[in-house]
Amino acid sequence: MKRLLAAVAAAIISGVSFGAPAEAQSARVSAVPGWEAVGRLNISGRNMCTGSLIAPNLVLTAAHCLYNPQTGQAVNPRTIKFEAGLNGRRAKAERQVVKAVIHPGYRHRWSDRSEPGSDIAVLRLNKPISASEVRPFALAAAPLPGDSVDVLSYSMQTSTRPARERGCTILSSRSETLITSCKVDYGASGSPVLQIVPGQAPRLVSVISAKAQMGRRPVSLATSLDGSLWALMRRAG
Questions:
Q1: Most exposed of 29, 35, 163, 171 (fewest Cβ within 10 Å)?
Q2: How many degrees, rounded to 5, is the angle at CA 131 between CA 24 and CA 11?
């Protein structure tokens, strides 16, 4: 952990042209069963992050996505739209956010430094998404060092189609923070870190918080899920 340098929020893309064409899906995200539970968070029509459906009316993302990257001010959650399974110009389901609950340990710092470990938030949607449209991701305990994981994310390069970073490795874990070999770009904040076993539904085990470097090696930081998530879900309703 001491060798970890330049942890930068994998954050919000500012001034994105949401109608612009995107790169093709990488590493066949469509091969992931239920991938449509990952979606783009359209924030005030200007910024974006990634989120994951974890209950019919709840979305998990990074807490820093709820702050304006230019001013550091909190964003009105009602200006956020969740676009589940966005693939090109069409989403499987779209819902407005009506409430946001941030991890009580998170303290936003308006700088290029992230605060992993508590960088999660739960968003409540204005209307549940039916399981016939999109099935929420299953949740599981944090992976161990050496475990293989995937990340599904929207980013600067793939703003309208999710990309899959496949076969990453958990390099280290300390408290609620994981270091992974996954490479992420701006917009990937809040992306699901998934454990994928053939023949089984993916399990969401962590949330991307930041891009970083260990020496010259690009890595990412993620917040692991613990009992505090259930409390956030209850508060979000």
A1: 171
A2: 45
Which pTM does this prediction carry?
0.89
The tally of CA atoms less than 13 A away on the side-chain side of residue 164 is: 19
pLDDT digits (tens, 9 = 90+) for 179-200: 999 988 888 999 999 999 888 8
